[in-house]
Amino acid sequence: MLFVHLMDSRSGQAHRRPRTLTVTVALILASAAVGGVKPALGQRTATGPTTSPATAAATAARQVGSPVYSDIPGLIEAAIGRADAAVAAIIAVPDSQRTFENTLGAVDDLGARIEAETNMLQFMAYVSTDAGERDAASAAEQRISEWAIDLSKNEDLYRAVKAYAATNHRLTGERARMLEFTLRDYRRAGMELPPDQRERLKEIEKSLSELEIQFQTNIREDETVVPVTLDELKGMPPEYIAGLARSADLYIVTMDYPSVEPLWTLCDNEMTRAKVRFAYVRRGGQKNVRLLEKIIKLRAERARMLGYAHTADFQTETRMARNAQTVREFYDKLIPIVKKKAVKDYAELAAAKREHTGDGSAVVQIWDGRFYTDYLLRTQYAVNHEEIREYFPLDAVLDGLFSITQSLYGIEYRDVTDSAGTSDRPLWHEDVKLYEVYDTTSGEMLGSFYLDLHPRANKYNHAAQWGLRQRKTYMDGKVQKPLAALVCNFTKPTADKPSLMRHNEVETFFHEFGHCLHTILSTTTLNQFGGTNVERDFVEAPSQMFENWVWDAQVLGTFSRHYKTGNPLPREMLDRMIAARYLGSGLLAQGQMWLGSIDFAYHTDPAGEVDTTAVQEQLYETISEYPFLPNTWFQAGFGHLMGYHAGYYGYMWSLVYASDMFQRFKELGMLDPQAGRYYRDKILARGGTVDGMTMVREYLGREPDMNAFLKHLGLEE
Ligand SMILES: [Zn+2]
Predict the structure, then answer these.
(1) Which residues have a beta carbon within 5 Å of ligand 1, which is an ion?
(2) CATH of 7-191, one of 3.40.50.80, 1.20.1050.40, 3.40.50.2000, 1.10.10.10
(3) Buried-state track 119-136, b at ≥16 Cβ within 10 A, e below 16
(4) Annotated catalytic, 261?
(5) % the chain with pLDDT above 70
């Protein structure tokens, strides 16, 4: 129905969060069932009016400070009014006359339409240059989210769907899948429970929603700081020190990422790194530990009430993994294999620390990880990111990305920025470009995408892809083309220097573009299954797979170009980068597995009675090479335990499938159009119309395995 689908944004954080959003009815139902969809993380779906252009009063807004839309609240209420009327019309159909078109199909239509009419308005919260418009757009998101939750609980609509399900419908394909998913999601939302249990479920969901918000608020408002002296900041660049708040002779280190990450990487004073780490893994405090344990208990009660052994089984039912047991086996298999690499990594860091400190028995601690990784990069691997970025001017990268994907997938991009700026395709800033995508064989216009690549005040500050509109065939036959937006923050060019991208930014660009093409190249007919509306533990596979292109010598040879000399990236420089790519990969994977395992262990106790501090410590001892840091409770500051609970494993899970899918390109050639066409047809085109596992199996022509992923970690197993 409604689709909000957030793909991930790739910030500099240790883990990347998908941020693409699509709102569909099923998702709304699903999210409502898990305690409310909070679009607060930056999920957006988007839109553009296809059916009623009159709803948007957009003009070409190319000046900072001028809104794109004149009346967002009015447009939102009008869209909701039309959607409510569509719901009423579905309910009013006599049961004897129910068809797919006038019942489920109409539900998919109204979901697609309200997305098309409001996604762009909601998106303005992240990109508009006008403060009033951003506020109105945020309010619109909240309004739409609440409306969607109400819709998922609409009893009359539920009865209409059930009445249709009871007819002799003989559905197949996407339509059969939609019916199955809709009934499943209604069941998951508790619609089949007796009235007293539904009341209790409602109470639980309400409490969960409040407690989860409180948990996140406590993290966001955490005021932990570590005061240090100038001496304790040894190794930190002057700009960093100048940016810190002062109190007398003390410098105040806050727990924000831009504050802690450089410190762990560069601070030569071990005690400072240790103190900051200690404070960091106590964020949220005991009050969040108590909140979390209450939340886990309520979630367990809900899962039992709905007929599941525990929360993890409930949560994974709609994902590629299908149940908790599969995820457990995944980790059981992976943990011992990764350990072999992690042990080597740990020894490498220990040698570095012993060399650097002159202490032959120095032990590597968690706060040493980044510091000695950076030390090794400089001393042994000679990887200089400032030097590397001179080979990646943004224009060259964009040309490369475009020509690679055009040839690989048999498509063509046309810059249509000059004809944009209408209500249907607004431009919110002068940096924004709009492209149309054409199929080179059929000549069909497949969809369009925006690029908004440079930072500016008040803009969304990570990188993300928004699926603003999905491919959709309305019940009257009208076809809506997908619309995506890539929002990134790459340095703007200046008069004497082009925008030079760091290699990890080039990787991010390819990643987000992987999401974008997943949105655009979809050939699905229902909104619910368009583009990136796939299982949540599969959605990062196409994007992560595409990251591999920026690590290939032949590919880089086609577009890297020194901004002064025009020379491509030297081979030996790339070889050093590749060697460095595997530096510490085992330890990093252990960190990810620890996070995923905590999240899972918390949600597999049937009664939800969990001592969260003891469990995280015990898992750390089992999984990690680093010694555990006592008296810490990382889980109290682990925000992913809220919306994404029992789902953190998905990052690594989808990387396994991404690596496996990538093998075929590696064998056939990363620039081979046949390999590209095959991937386009077998994966990208199908969106969520088929189970992720089935798609991967059909694409591979065999059972998926972990071998490619282990190579990705630098392990030959
Ligand atoms: Zn992503």
Answers:
(1) 7-8, 18, 540, 543
(2) 1.20.1050.40
(3) bbbbbbbbbbbbeebbeb
(4) no
(5) 91
